């Protein structure tokens, strides 16, 4: 099977069954079996530039010029001058055939860029529109088959003009054979073209689709792009299917032909780089890529007559780049990597068919279907590499999946064991919580009972002390003892009051919201502390910013906050000092500041001043009692009123407490 495939490849590669080399524009084909073989009219043809002549006029020329076909007239020396790419000319050859061969035909092939065909003085047809200027000439590419008259001598004249491409003239030798054979040969070429196009299409589609359903991979994207533009180039070059089947105009088909060449080059470089990034330098993958993109942009926006001159430059760049890539891949293949060896074989094939394609384009050799067939095998080699990588990835995924499954099983066992432990601990926590709740309830009940039972005898003691004081014959020592007893009794009563207040506060946290008039509320509250302040000659300066707007809060809790803060300020202030109160109702907040000039709080004790039963090193200045609960109560009440409290203090400079409370109105 592979031998047959190889035979087909080389047959298509050169598409040559027989060559007829004419002598001085005469091709003697009497010995050729034109019923079974196609003859290429490759050899010397008579040539006359700047004239559109008949066969008879060509024969009558006194100084005939002969040119080897296939060859364009661009750049050749003609009568002492170098010919330009544009212009028009006549090609003439005489063909001698066996008259017994019926239904003889000629495939005029694609000439640059239009022509008229005459045989034995009769016009057989035209491809494009022959003209003597760019206004009258119309380019077209078409492999057109013409039926020839029955005669043993055929005078063939090609009148060719070109005003739209960088090369003009007979770039391909015509084909001569029995008509059905030519049609069959063209049909085989078209069938093979569609087979290659379909195969390359599905290669590209698969790798493009893999980017949608798997992790996106630039290598797959560039491979799909190479396939896409290979298809476009095959459609624009192989039998010129875009023109014949899709009726594309010449200028569009030719632009696609050129652009697809540049982009195949650019995307192939990128694909090879992402296939073997460890072997191909990054800068090398970038420079040729941008050269190809630049050539594409120029071709899109400039006339074909001018931008087609980029072709030989890009052909040279392609060859140089190909040699460099061959070097990098060959050097990497020495390490024995199978993928690199397959890539080397594929790229060698691609490089070979690229060189052949360039030679065909330069009219140095004759061939058909070369590039499409070569790049098909090149792309197929990379399909093998990518399939191998995907297979290796699949195997690794299977191994990872198995390892993950085993790990999950171990994890499930561990989770099950830990869950069992947690359930047991949760049961213990539930039991402990129930016990703690029971203890807490007992504690609260005990506090309530103790406070109530202790408060009654202390109040009785207070009354008894007053009775003992009533006689006027008490000595000074007795009076002093009674004062100390009364003070101690009062401290006990205050401690019990604080405990009861803390108990009520913790058990009833919901605020009883009422509207207060800020000015009158604080005036009345501060007056209650004036007498205590006078005992120590302390002045209370109050600054209440006037406001007509009511403030919504819990008046009782606010009163407790202020009583504790002012009482603390009085206890820890020196005699004849000043306490400053600032109250400001601003927006939806009430700002309160209580500042004294007392002894302050030591820095190391400041973090714990809001904790319960915390007594500081500094004592009240007049020996007043303190329970250590006041500031703890203040902080709790402030938080219940959705507020904040902060303080600043320095030893012997005093302390400032700042409270900010939110307006608790329901529509706030």
Rounded average pLDDT:
82
Rounded radius of gyration (Å): 54 Å
Low-confidence parts: 1-22
What's the number of extended β-strand segments?
A: 23
What share of the residues lie within helices? 40-55%
Number of helices: 16
EC number: 2.7.13.3
Organism: Marivirga tractuosa (strain ATCC 23168 / DSM 4126 / NBRC 15989 / NCIMB 1408 / VKM B-1430 / H-43) (Microscilla tractuosa)
Coiled coil: 397-442
Domain Histidine kinase: 449-665
Keywords for this entry:
seven-stranded mixed β-sheet; alpha+beta; 668 residues; disordered N terminus; 3 domains; five-stranded mixed β-sheet; Jelly Rolls; Heat Shock Protein 90
Reconstruct the topology from this structure.
Blueprint: H1 2-14, E1 18-19, E2 26-28, E3 39-40, E4 43-49, H2 55-59, E5 65-69, E6 71-72, E7 77-78, E8 81-82, E9 87-96, E10 104-107, E11 114-119, E12 122-127, E13 145-147, E14 153-162, E15 169-170, E16 175-178, H3 179-213, H4 218-237, H5 241-244, H6 250-275, H7 282-301, H8 304-307, H9 310-333, H10 338-361, H11 370-469, H12 476-507, E17 514-516, H13 518-527, H14 530-535, E18 539-544, E19 551-553, H15 555-571, E20 578-586, E21 589-595, H16 630-640, E22 644-650, E23 654-662
Parallel strand pairs: 1-3, 2-9, 18-20
Antiparallel strand pairs: 3-16, 4-5, 4-9, 6-15, 7-8, 9-14, 10-13, 10-16, 11-12, 11-14, 17-19, 20-21, 21-23, 22-23
Helix pairs in contact: 3-4, 3-11, 4-6, 4-11, 6-7, 7-9, 9-10, 10-11, 11-12, 12-16, 15-16
Task: Give an overview in words.
- The chain has helices at residues 2-14, 55-59, 179-213, 218-237, 241-244, 250-275, 282-301, 304-307, 310-333, 338-361, 370-469, 476-507, 518-527, 530-535, 555-571, 630-640, and strands at residues 18-19, 26-28, 39-40, 43-49, 65-69, 71-72, 77-78, 81-82, 87-96, 104-107, 114-119, 122-127, 145-147, 153-162, 169-170, 175-178, 514-516, 539-544, 551-553, 578-586, 589-595, 644-650, 654-662.
- It has 668 residues and is an alpha+beta fold.
- The chain has three domains: 18-184, Sandwich (Jelly Rolls); 217-368, no CATH class; 509-662, Heat Shock Protein 90 (2-Layer Sandwich), CATH 3.30.565.
- Helix 3 packs antiparallel against helix 4 and helix 15 runs antiparallel to helix 16 (630-640).
- The protein is rod-shaped.
């Amino acid at each position: 099977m592979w031998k047959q495939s190889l035979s087909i490849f080389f047959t298509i590669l050169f598409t040559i069954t027989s060559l007829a080399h004419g002598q001085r524009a005469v091709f003697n084909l009497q010995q050729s079996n034109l019923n079974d073989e196609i003859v290429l009219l490759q050899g010397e043809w008579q040539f006359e530039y700047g004239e559109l002549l008949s066969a008879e006029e060509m024969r009558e020329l006194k100084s005939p010029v002969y040119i080897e076909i296939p060859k364009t007239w661009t750049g050749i020396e003609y009568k002492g001058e170098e010919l330009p790419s544009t212009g028009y000319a006549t090609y003439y050859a005489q063909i001698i055939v066996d008259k017994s061969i019926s239904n003889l035909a000629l495939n005029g092939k694609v000439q640059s860029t239009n022509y008229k065909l005459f045989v034995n003085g009769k016009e057989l047809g035209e491809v494009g529109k022959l003209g003597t200027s760019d206004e009258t000439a119309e380019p077209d590419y078409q492999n057109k088959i013409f039926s020839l008259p029955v005669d043993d001598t055929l005078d063939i004249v090609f009148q060719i003009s070109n005003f739209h491409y960088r090369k003009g003239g007979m770039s391909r030798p015509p084909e001569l054979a029995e008509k059905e054979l030519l049609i069959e040969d063209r049909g085989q070429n078209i069938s093979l073209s569609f087979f290659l196009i379909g195969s390359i299409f599905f290669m590209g589609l698969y790798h493009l689709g893999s980017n949608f359903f798997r992790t996106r991979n630039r290598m797959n994207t560039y491979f799909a792009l190479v396939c896409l533009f290979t298809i476009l180039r095959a459609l624009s070059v192989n039998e010129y299917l875009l023109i014949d089947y899709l009726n594309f105009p010449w200028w569009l088909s030719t632009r696609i032909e050129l652009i697809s060449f540049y982009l195949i080059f650019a995307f192939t470089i990128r694909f090879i780089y992402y296939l073997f990034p460890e072997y191909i330098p990054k800068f090398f993958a970038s420079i040729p890529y941008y050269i190809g993109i630049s050539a594409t942009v120029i071709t899109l926006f400039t006339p074909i007559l001018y931008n087609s001159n980029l072709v030989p430059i890009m052909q040279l760049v392609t060859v140089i780049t190909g040699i460099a890539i061959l070097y990098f891949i060959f050097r990497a293949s020495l390490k024995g990597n199978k993928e690199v060896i397959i890539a080397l074989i594929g790229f060698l094939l691609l490089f070979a068919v690229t060189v052949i394609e360039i030679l065909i384009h330069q009219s140095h050799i004759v061939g058909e279907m070369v590039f499409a067939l070569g790049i098909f095998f090149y792309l197929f080699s990379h399909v093998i590499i990518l399939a191998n990588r995907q297979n290796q990835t699949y195997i690794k995924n299977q191994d990872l999946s198995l390892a993950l499954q085993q790990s999950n099983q171990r994890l499930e066992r561990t989770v099950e064991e830990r869950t069992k432990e947690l359930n047991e601990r949760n049961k213990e926590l539930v039991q402990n919580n129930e016990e703690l709740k029971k203890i807490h309830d007992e504690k609260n009940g005990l506090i309530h009972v103790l406070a109530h039972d202790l408060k009654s005898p202390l109040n009785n003691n207070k009354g008894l002390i007053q009775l003992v004081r009533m006689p006027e014959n008490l000595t000074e020592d007795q009076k002093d003892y009674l004062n100390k007893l009364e003070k101690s009794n009062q401290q006990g009563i205050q401690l019990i009051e604080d405990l009861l207040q803390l108990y009520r506060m913790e058990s009833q946290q919901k605020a009883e919201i009422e509207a207060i008039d800020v000015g009158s509320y604080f005036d009345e509250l501060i007056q209650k502390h004036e007498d205590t302040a006078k005992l120590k000659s302390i002045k209370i300066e109050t600054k209440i910013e006037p406001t007509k707007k009511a403030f919504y809060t819990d008046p009782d809790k606010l009163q407790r906050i202020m009583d504790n803060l002012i009482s603390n300020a009085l206890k820890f202030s020196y005699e004849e000092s000043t306490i400053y109160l600032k109250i400001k109702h601003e927006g939806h907040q009430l700002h309160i500041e209580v500042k004294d000039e007392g002894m302050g709080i030591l820095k190391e004790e400041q973090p714990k001043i809001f904790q319960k039963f915390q007594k500081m090193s500094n004592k009240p200045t007049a020996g007043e009692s303190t329970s250590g609960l006041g500031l703890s109560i203040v902080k709790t009440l402030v938080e219940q009123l959705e507020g904040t409290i902060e303080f600043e203090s320095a030893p012997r400079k005093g302390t400032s407490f700042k409270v900010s409370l939110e307006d608790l109105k329901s529509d706030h």
